[in-house]
Amino acid sequence: MSTHLAMEKLAFRYGAHQVLKELSLKVERGVFLAIVGPNGSGKSTLLKNLSAVLTPAKGKVFLDGEDLYRIGPKALAKKLAVVPQDTTVQFPFTVEEVVLMGRMPHQERFQGDTEKDFKIVQQSMERTNTWHLRERNITELSGGERQRVIVARALAQEPQILLLDEPTAHLDLQHQMELLNLLQGLKNEGQVTILAVFHDLNLAAQFSEFVILLHQGKIYASGTPAEVLTPANLAAVYGMEVVVIPNELTGRFNIIPVALTDIGATAAAKKKFHLICGGGTGNFLMEQLVQQGHQVSCGVLNIGDSDWSKAKALGLPLAEEMPFAGIQEESYKKNWGLLLGAQGIIVLPIPFGPGNIGNLRQALEAHRLGKKVILVGEIDGRDFTNGAAAAFYQELIKGGAKKVFQTFELLPLLREF
Amino acid sequence: MEANSRGKKKGILLTYGIILIIVMIFCLTVGPAKITFKAALALLWAKIPGVGRLVSIDQYPSTYLTIIYDVRMPRIILAALVGGALAAVGTTFQGLFKNPMADPYIIGVSSGAALGATIAMVAGFSKIAGVWALPIAAFSGAILTTVLVYQIARVGNKLPIFNLLLSGVALSSFMTAIMSFLMILNSRELSQIIYWTLGSFSGRDWSQVQVAAPIILLGIGVLWFFARELNAMLFGEETARHLGIDPEKVKKILLVVAATTVAGAVAVSGTIGFVGLIVPHTIRLLTGPDHRILLPGAVLAGSIFMVATDTFAKVALSPTEIPVGIITAIFGGPFFIYLLRKGKTGVF
């Protein structure tokens, strides 16, 4: 691998407003780089500088070691193609005419469109699934179709480097995947380097090899998606609490926004929580609390239960019991210790029977000692103790325990502990 | 399919070319002296080197040759040149400004030329420069205006299109006001000035053709060479840049060439309106927006339209001539409205 594109202290300003602040970055040949960051962080401006539509106030960009701003427009267009954010066209060119324009950098002034041009245009259109649209007017297409036509035009330029500004913004789910798979294919087979601005962090996480996270005109973090798209980085840049969950289907991960962050508040307040869970009800919450840096304990869990596996995987302290045995005094004792050590107790929507009702009793006892308790979900339909569990529930609520309906509603409440 | 649609478009150009030739020959026959189409053809054929001897023109009076070659032909050719120039520049400006209202005069060329011509008439330049006083004054006025508009619109090294439009409109109004003021002060020349601004080919001869033809033909040629760039510019300057074009360079070249071409046309014919606005729109409906076909198509159609309307202007109220600019608007306006209503799927 060699460096394809290198930025050195790239700085750009609109008037007095400094948009890019000395960005330096090396992009290897044939990688898929995602550029992410909040609105106004300089993503589009960066792309415009890299495509020489704008010229930086300071700093340099090298394309294959050559000063990008000294390459003539035509020579540059043979190497670098751009899919802009706004692809609206007012003039009723046919789709084929539009894609043919991608051949302009390769054509001499007095030369017409050659057979080779038409062949490359056809290939580009077939790859983007637009060949069947070739006789239509571009003004009549849907946003998604038009986007793919503009991608076809960029491909017709036969670029070595492709810049895309939110390429999936107008596309539906199917076409998003088609386009991103196409980009990956291009990258894999042709050594095409791809730089794409993404708003959708999940797409960036799923398709890119490298990510740069822009924040106020600077590169806040760069590296692999797993290194860059961490809850801590995203909280700092977007002011959002997010959860990062492994996605077994893609082998990558998903990012789920949770709540707006009081920047600085979460870092300072690390808490201890005890979860009364089981059967997977605590899975999400465990992951999340741990990611936010809290200490979590669980109990009493049956050995082999999915929450038990999760807690073990995360290395959480827990009270455990053999399944189908009913919880023994020993385990309740251990659980009691964990309960007393926590600042908050969260009771997840598990069914209660004679074998595990002790968990709820302990929560109530701890609540009487002043521990805060949050209940998730109604008790109806999961009380198998002839009303004992429901009675504990009522007493907890009467005593001031909070109740929420869904697990994700909890997250903003946790700060109050 | 591509070959077909390209073939179809070349067919359009060929058809327009043939229509233009037929219209021009037909218009040679129109006038006080009754010359038949056959006679006109024979007289033309006789002048072709090599094969000219194959036809006999002895049966026609010798005045016919004079009427055709020295009176009607230069006027028809001049009308064709001016019509083509206005259509070419109208097409270019509509594309460059991405504005359907754009016409060849949008950046103030016409008011500059008119002011120049007015000054020449009021000050009596014709005593010094003879018949060339008006063309020289109009051409200078047009070029000077373009330079001024360019300088006003320019921001450093860049030429923002909106600045160009606005400074063109502002300067136009300013110069029209001065012209009106001069007209009020010199009411003796009033009708002459108005007549000039309406445009006419009355009394033009080969000398005007000799002066205007090189400017106009060269101008149209250059504009056509930039058809591909103009296509890309329709997608916006950023996209044009992505496709390997230097938009600033293209804008400057097109502006200078287009303004010079119009100045050449206006100098010999006055400010004929409407042709440069409606012909490009009409042809765009037929050919689509690809300037490689649209521009030559509009040039040919502009020529046809101008030759036909000028001939009508000449004979409609014979022996009085109507300024051709009135005819272009009278015929062009309703026709264009008809097209708009018929093909409402977006002219532009």
Mind explaining what this structure looks like?
- The complex is a heterodimer of chains A (417) and B (348).
- By secondary structure, chain A is of the alpha/beta class.
- Chain A has helices at 43-50, 73-79, 95-100, 115-127, 143-156, 173-190, 201-207, 225-228, 231-238, 265-268, 283-291, 306-314, 329-341, 357-368, 388-398, 410-413, and strands at 3-14, 17-28, 32-36, 58-63, 66-67, 80-83, 161-165, 193-197, 210-215, 218-223, 240-247, 252-260, 272-276, 295-302, 318-321, 344-347, 372-376, 402-404.
- Chain A folds into two domains: 3-229, Rossmann fold (3-Layer(aba) Sandwich); 269-416, 3-Layer(aba) Sandwich (Rossmann fold).
- In chain A, the strands form four sheets. Chain A has a six-stranded mixed β-sheet, with helices on both faces. A six-stranded parallel β-sheet of chain A has the order 15-14-13-16-17-18, with helices on both faces. In chain A, strands 2-1-4-5 form a four-stranded antiparallel β-sheet, with helices on one face.
- The longest helix of chain A has 18 residues, at 173-190.
- Chain A starts with a strand and ends with a helix.
- Chain B is mainly alpha-helical.
- Helix content of chain B is 75%, strand content 0%.
- Chain B has helices at 2-28, 37-46, 62-97, 109-123, 126-129, 133-153, 161-185, 190-198, 206-225, 227-233, 237-242, 247-269, 275-287, 291-315, 324-342.
- In chain B, helix 13 (275-287) runs parallel beside helix 15 (324-342).
- Chain A binds chain B through residues 48, 51-53, 72-78, 81-82, 84, 89-94, 96-97, 101-102, 104-105, 107, 109-110, 118, 134-135, 139, 154, 157, and chain B through 1-2, 5, 98, 225, 228, 231-232, 234-235, 238-239, 241-246, 288-290, 345-346, 348.
pLDDT average of chain B, as an integer?
Answer: 89
Summed over residues and divided by their number, the pLDDT of chain A gives a mean of 87
By CATH, the topology of chain B is ABC transporter involved in vitamin B12 uptake, BtuC
| Name of the CATH first level of the largest domain in chain A | Alpha Beta
| Rg of chain A, alpha carbons | 28 Å
Largest sheet of chain B: none
Distance between the termini of chain B: 24 Å
Low-pLDDT stretches of chain A are none
Give the structural class of chain A. Answer: alpha/beta
Shape of chain B: globular
Number of distinct helices of chain B: 15
Strand content of chain B: under 5%
Order of helices and strands of chain B: HHHHHHHHHHHHHHH
Largest sheet of chain A: 6 strands, mixed
For the record, the CATH class of chain B is Mainly Alpha
| CATH hierarchy: architecture of the largest domain in chain A | 3-Layer(aba) Sandwich
Share of helix among residues of chain A?
A: 25-40%
Estimated radius of gyration of chain B: 21 Å
Query: CATH H-level name of the largest domain in chain A... which superfamily?
Result: P-loop containing nucleotide triphosphate hydrolases
Oligomer: heterodimer
